[in-house]
Amino acid sequence: MLSYRHSFHAGNHADVLKHTVQSLIIQSLSEKEKPFLYLDTHAGAGRYLLNSEHAERTGEYMEGIGRLWQNPEAPEQLQPYLSAVSALNPSGRLKYYPGSPLIARHLLRAQDTIELTELHPTDYPLLRNEFLKDDRARVARGDGYQQLKAKLPPAARRGLILIDPPYEMKSDYQAVVDGIREGYKRFATGVFALWYPVVLRQQIKRMLSELQATGIKRILQIELAVRPDSDQRGMTASGMIVINPPWKLAAEMEAVLPWLHKQLSPAGTGHTLVNWVVPE
């Protein structure tokens, strides 16, 4: 199935969480001069027009980035992320939203490398065109999970691997665990960041149990819910599973999540979570 288009959901509360975590990890890796690899298994189109038919149809960005955009009270932990959004909107009007590849492009340095994979026949050429003039980047059309075998370990032995599938099929929840297991075999010191939606809580519990069963250590869970768990249709929360997180990531997210929750869930429903699924 290739029906999922992120353009309907760009800039929503799940993107805010995902891209905040992504930005903080990149910022941390950049503190050392040595280069590193950024690998994005499900990269999408790269940039999203917020007044497009898709984005306007759902309006999800207005309850996500729209509530943070140019907010003078935004905590310092959000500055790397918000700087990437600002760079794509130099006029000061929120017109475009950067997907994870463009956030990486904004934050990475000249010595770092970018590997992007996208399978969707419409999104792939858009992504390729975004990076035509970026010598750091390689863009491929194909199965992102295969990149975990083909591109790891990187020569520099440092890297962030972002895994962000559409979860169109229930099998995706198992596929991400299998992909992480394969990638970790090749690159046990890499930072692996897995995004997940909370539609049915039981699916997340099962996925976490499968990750624990891999024997991998240092697994951190970060979650932001804007509504309570429900058995009704729709995403109430999203989260990031980070393997080998930078040492300060947990504290940074504990500091910023209450503020984010207040902005993204004004009614105060839902929850935030920073939890070690598997410690050292």
From TrEMBL:
Pfam families: RsmJ. The active site is at 164 (proton acceptor). The record marks 4 as: Interaction with substrate rRNA. Its EC number is 2.1.1.266. Keywords: Methyltransferase, RNA-binding, rRNA processing, S-adenosyl-L-methionine, Transferase. One of its GO terms (biological process) is rRNA base methylation. S-adenosyl-L-methionine binds at residues 19, 42, 100, 118, 143-144, 164. Transmembrane segments: none annotated. One of its GO terms (cellular component) is cytosol. The keyword Flavoprotein does not apply. It catalyses: adenosine(2030) in 23S rRNA + S-adenosyl-L-methionine = N(6)-methyladenosine(2030) in 23S rRNA + S-adenosyl-L-homocysteine + H(+). Gene3D superfamilies: Vaccinia Virus protein VP39. GO terms for molecular function: 23S rRNA (adenine(2030)-N(6))-methyltransferase activity; RNA binding. Coiled coil: none annotated. Belongs to the RlmJ family. HAMAP family: 23SrRNA_methyltr_J. PANTHER family: RIBOSOMAL RNA LARGE SUBUNIT METHYLTRANSFERASE J. Monomer. Specifically methylates the adenine in position 2030 of 23S rRNA. This is Ribosomal RNA large subunit methyltransferase J. It comes from Tatumella ptyseos ATCC 33301.
